[in-house]
Amino acid sequence: MEVRSEALPRAAASGAVCLLSEDDSHAASLARRAEGGDPWECFLRGQQYYEEYEEALVQFEKSKDTDFQALYQLGVMHYDGLGTDKDPEKGVEYMKKILSSDSPAARHLRFAAAYNLGRAHYEGYGVKHSTEEAERLWLIAADNGNPKASVKAQSTLGMLYSMPDLKDLKKAFFWHSEACGNGSLESQGALGVMYLYGQGVRRNTKASLECLKAAAERGNIYAQGHLVEYYYNRKFFSTAVAIARRTTENDNIEMLATMTDCLPAYVAKGVAIAAFYLARCLHLGRGIEKDEAAAKKYYSKACLLDPDVASDLELKANLGRI
């Protein structure tokens, strides 16, 4: 399971975004005040340059000792190597400072810091690998489903409890439900699949379709892939083809994952499922004119994106199940 850093919580970032959207004269004033060492202005200046990571690093370094938000951004940048060489130990150190601080100024960052520390323990990067410690920290970050806590931690727990080592599908369903209720697109798609196959919950086709359709409309590629499968299995071949075509138009997995904030592995699975069923329709002339050359292209795409998904579906096809 791949995990990513938690973005700066909105409560911290919103003020920066609002102020930085003002006119150029304000931006110039902001630059002057940042150069004067004002901690808040240094943070805002750093936020302005966040996509230009090297300049952001300079600005955040100026105020990291007095501004927990700058410290948080630096922690992410050092851990992931954004604008600087990777230094996971320093990233972990900064997140620990935030999590252990009793300052009111760090309060809104603690859940996100706990999530990131859980990620470090899960990956064994910058700190000793420990799935148990990752689970403990993610539970702190998730805070019993608190919508103001880390929704990413809630969704990640849903994924964690679906993995072989800690498999507990009832817990997985609980956490995906909490995360979905708090706006997680990733968990909304996962819930649709769990309802569809009765994983951790009683099978419920109506609830499954509601989740999958809503997630698919919001851009969840994994949900789109499962919608293709759903309609194909119910012989709505034209609908399956239409969704599959849209889903397979873009196979830039990293870009799609960034746009939707979904895990790349599940984005790849979604495109692979859609590609395989589109290939099947082209191969057999179901819902579309038969085209074996195009079918081979989509079979190959499915294999390249996710060999395991393609292998499982090929076996089902060979057994006459699809």
Automatic annotation (TrEMBL):
GO terms for cellular component: cytoplasm. It comes from the Eukaryota. Pfam families: Sel1. It is found in: Cytoplasm. Keywords: Cytoplasm, Repeat, TPR repeat. InterPro entries: LRP2-binding, Sel1-like, TPR-like_helical_dom_sf. May act as an adapter that regulates LRP2 function. This is LRP2-binding protein. It comes from Gallus gallus.
